[in-house]
Amino acid sequence: MTTPPLVELDPTSGLTHRETPRAAGLLRRFARHRLALVGLALLVGLVLFCYLGPLLYVTDQVHTDLGAARLAPGSAGHPLGTDDLGYDTLGRLMVAGQVSLLIGVVAGLIATALGALWGAVAGYVGGWLDLVLMRVVDAGVAIPALFLLLVAATLVTPNTWVLALVIGGVSWLVPARLMRAETVTLRERDYVRALRVVGGGRARAVFRHILPNAIGTVVVAATFQIADAILLVAYVSFLGLGLQPPATDWGGMLSKGITYTYDSSWWLILPPGIAIVLVVCAFNFVGDGLRDAFEVRGRDR
Amino acid sequence: MSATSDNEPVLRVDGLSVDFRTSSGPVTAVSGVSFAVREREIVAVVGESGSGKSTTAMAVLQLLAPNAHVSGGIQLLGRDVLALRGEQLRRVRGKDAAMIFQEPMTALNPLHTIGAQLVEAMRNHATPQERRSRDFRAEAVRLLHRVGIPEPERRLRQYPHQLSGGQRQRVVIAVALSCRPRLIIADEPTTALDVTVQAGILDLLRDIRDTDGTAVLLITHNMGVVADIADRVLVMRHGELVEQAGTERLFAAPSHDYTRALLAAVPKLGDRDRATDSGVDGDTKASEVDTGNASSEPDTGAAPAALELTDVVVSYATGRGTGLRALDRVSLRLAPGEMLGLVGESGSGKSTLGQCALGLITPDAGEVRVFGTPLRRARGRAGRALRGQLGVVFQDPASSLDPRMTVAQCVAEPLLVHRVRDRAERARRVAELLDAVELGSAVHHRFPHELSGGQRQRVSLARALVLRPKLLVADEPTSALDVSVQATVLDVLTRLHRELGFACLFISHDLAVVDAVCDRVAVMRAGRIIEDGPRRDILTNAGQEYTRQLVMSSPVPDPVRQRRRRGDRAAGTTTGAAR
């Protein structure tokens, strides 16, 4: 073709939209989400409370002290009172929080990682493997997670890591479905097809293209999974199948406190209850914020 | 129909400016544009993406997003549109000026019948008295008949999905005509349509103008369409009006540099033969073309074909079990080093054929051989080696590159797949290829979203060629690009084809582009290759009626030639008119 050279439109000029560098843009959009910032602040606060708190506010959470059982809040040295075995409630809230947060985060991450990989393989490979993998998920969803958890709790003595593993093991189903749906659309993107044309393998497609491009979905799923996992730990402990004393978590504290409801020992129930509500809300807010930050990619005007 | 006096245009736009308020400050989309559209006049607004042509059209009916700030004057039938609000504005829209959009499927509501939508449009602008007395249904039948839809009574009861794309656009035009507007604003009305269908729609618009005296403001990027239908042309660039002139004068003697460059960038059917004669870059071209022809001589027997399809059948399962045959016993042979253009309208199976050649689709029957090896049996190490001979460039620049990889990583990926372990060697080849597609070292560490569409397509080309493949499949590689950018990409492609000597299957719906780059042309229709031969024979002297129709229908960006062609087409068959 014989054409005079024509200057191509400079991508930065005119109306052509230009995205700000990835991380900065993401942060900016996240920061615009008020509730997400509140959630993030809450999370930071809770983590500091649970992990730094015991260093500043030293209490004995191993030995019982029946002489100081069920003291009301405000008693000398016990701002939130004590429980039926004489453990300081405020101190116990911190120690229990460590366990709840740890189990929640580990279980949530296990569930997301397992689910994402499962869904990506099913979606990318397709065919009969997809069919088999997704029917397994369907079957899993049909059985209540709590039921599986209770069965597991009766088989093994629960400690922190066992609980985290078990909860992670029963809650990967939803992320798997999400990831499969995402993969099915990503698989037909031209850059993935171009890779197939030159003989690129499945592992490369999944790990180099599909998973990185689904990172938004994965991260958002992870925050919701963590919130769910914290709730699940609370359920299980509440039903008395959680950790063995003297270790405890927020659900366990609730479970014990409920016995004394009619003696108006509100300080045994409200603090762990509020803590659970706060942490679950915080993770959900952060998840919402992240989802919006990832979704508006390229059209934040 | 009251006649407007000559000095009172239907639409007058004075110093129109549009700014969009965005989070990163105001962005000017249109600045200081003035023009007028008179009765019985078709005015085309042309420009590349981002030139502000659509924004201008939308501003006329105040259809812009709320963050748009419009200033200047817009007089429609002597009334100031910018002063209108609410109910007054609603009355102007549709009644005084109607709009036709690009995508007829989304312009119609899929849940309502054609008839219901036509009647609704008329009722909306009828007085309460008229609503009782008028026979809207009979008028709808007349309208459908007017826009050339056969069996209007039956069509009224049908839903949009039961109509073809061309018929849908005719229905949209019928809706637009329902209130007898004095001005029709058509925003890329034929861009989503095949050329044969496009020709029919343009004829219809011309006919409406001729019989009803309706003024038409036509927004388009297609110079062929402009040459075919417009009386006057406005050329826009970066939100400014750079030139306005009568169509014939603009094409014959464009006064602005940009217009000249734009016109020169448009590939013209049949222009290649003239260009080589005229000597511009002709010395290199002529000799290279010769060698190209030499290598494309059918050297059957000696070397195996770069690509050979034998009786390939691909069918897609449809809802009712009867498979739709996307490819129906297709056989095709591509010699090493040959550049074959595969043309056809949408749904003809050309992309499916390309995907078969790449092994992305496994045919239901028949065989695909690449350099003599059946693609189906190529597995493992041998399979990877064979796939190293293949390269591909897809149509959509937005999805052809992984948004999370830098340009250099994208281009290097095939090397990694083919175990080129030496980092320095990889970097060298990436740099070499990016250099070959005329992208400097500055882009290496950029991400795809920082590049323009044309740059991205050139990165795709670099990625496709980094393994030095012997067969390249280019599936509409420039269809999503502006003409000036298309010209650059095509130049790069033809130069690399000359230098590297790969065989190329060039899939396109644009005959002019195929004419500009290919040696041989194959025409597809309804899953079959109906004609296959040297470029010049197919495009100037086709054996098949369908091919001739296709060539006739694709508009040439030259008003004088186009008028002659239109005459020829009218004198010939009229079978394609209502499709």
Automatic annotation (TrEMBL), chain A:
The membrane topology noted for this protein in its Swiss-Prot or TrEMBL record is: Multi-pass membrane protein
Mind telling me which GO cellular component terms the entry cites? plasma membrane
| InterPro entries the UniProt entry points to | BP-dependent_transpt_permease, MetI-like, MetI-like_sf, OppC_N
In which domain of life is the source organism classified? Bacteria
Q: Where does it live in the cell?
A: Cell membrane
> In the UniProt record, does the keyword tRNA processing occur?
no
Respond yes or no to whether keyword Lipid metabolism is given for this record: no
Supply the PROSITE patterns for this chain. ABC_TM1
Query: Where do the TM regions start and end?
Result: 35-57, 101-125, 132-155, 214-244, 264-287
The alphabetical list of record keywords is:
Cell membrane, Membrane, Transmembrane, Transmembrane helix, Transport
Q: Which residues form the ABC transmembrane type-1 domain?
A: 97-287
Query: GO annotations under biological process?
Result: transmembrane transport
Which family is this protein grouped under? Belongs to the binding-protein-dependent transport system permease family.
Q: What is this protein called?
A: Peptide/nickel transport system permease protein
Q: Which organism is it from?
A: Goodfellowiella coeruleoviolacea
From TrEMBL, chain B:
**Superkingdom field:** Bacteria
Tell me if Zinc-finger is a UniProt keyword of this record. no
Where is this gene product found?
Answer: Cell membrane
Q: Where is the composition biased (Basic and acidic residues)?
A: 273-288
Q: Where are the transmembrane segments?
A: none
Principal location listed in the UniProt entry: membrane
Keyword DNA damage part of the UniProt annotation: no
Q: How does this protein sit in the membrane? A: Peripheral membrane protein
Mention one GO biological process in which this protein takes part, according to its record. Answer: peptide transport
One short Pfam name that applies is ABC_tran
Q: Which PANTHER family match?
A: DIPEPTIDE TRANSPORT ATP-BINDING PROTEIN DPPD (PTHR43297:SF2), OLIGOPEPTIDE TRANSPORT ATP-BINDING PROTEIN APPD (PTHR43297)
Q: What is the similarity comment for this entry?
A: Belongs to the ABC transporter superfamily.
Q: What is this protein called?
A: Peptide/nickel transport system ATP-binding protein
- The source organism is Goodfellowiella coeruleoviolacea
